[in-house]
Amino acid sequence: QGEDDVAERGYLLVVEMLDHLIKGDASGAYAVAAEIVEIGERFNDPDLLAIGMMEQGHALVRLGRAEDGGRLIDETMVAMEALTAFKRAGADGILTYFALDAARWLRERR
């Protein structure tokens, strides 16, 4: 965790992850997406977290684990998009039906 340990690194990793996908390397894409999730969690960046989790789901689908990948994409992304949309709009706090699920997903990712 040196001078490269900044949230922006997660956004740069999106390019690397897409490169893996373009080359057909779903395992590599999954690994980079997991790193994006970790950076999103460490810097409390809901956009990075959402991007990483969604791309982990896409990679799982490409790896033949469609049920796991689809579940991750559908369930998590609907809730996270709802939460991050409020945050992007400037909300300081969010009270939602998804709060307990979001807290559980974030805890499970650690």
**Structural class of the secondary elements?**
mainly alpha
End-to-end gap: 17 Å
| Rg, Cα atoms, Å | 14 Å
**Helix content, binned percent:** over 70%
Order of helices and strands: HHHHH
Query: In DSSP terms, counting alpha (H) and pi (I) runs of 4 or more, how many helices?
Result: 5
Low-confidence stretches are none
Net shape = globular
**What integer is the average pLDDT?**
82
What's this entry about, in short?
The chain is an all-alpha fold and 110 residues long.
Key traits:
0% strand, mainly alpha, 110 residues
Q: Can you tell me about this structure?
A:
With 110 residues, the chain is an all-alpha fold. It is 75% helix and 0% strand. It has helices spanning 8-22, 26-42, 46-62, 66-88, 99-109. Helix 2 runs antiparallel to helix 3 and helix 4 (66-88) crosses helix 5 (99-109). The longest helix is centred in the last third of the chain and has 23 residues, at 66-88. It is globular and about 40 Å long. The chain starts with 7 loop residues before the first helix and ends with a helix.
Question: Could you outline the blueprint of secondary structure elements for this entry?
Answer:
Layout: H1 8-22, H2 26-42, H3 46-62, H4 66-88, H5 99-109
Helix pairs in contact: 1-2, 1-3, 2-3, 3-4, 4-5
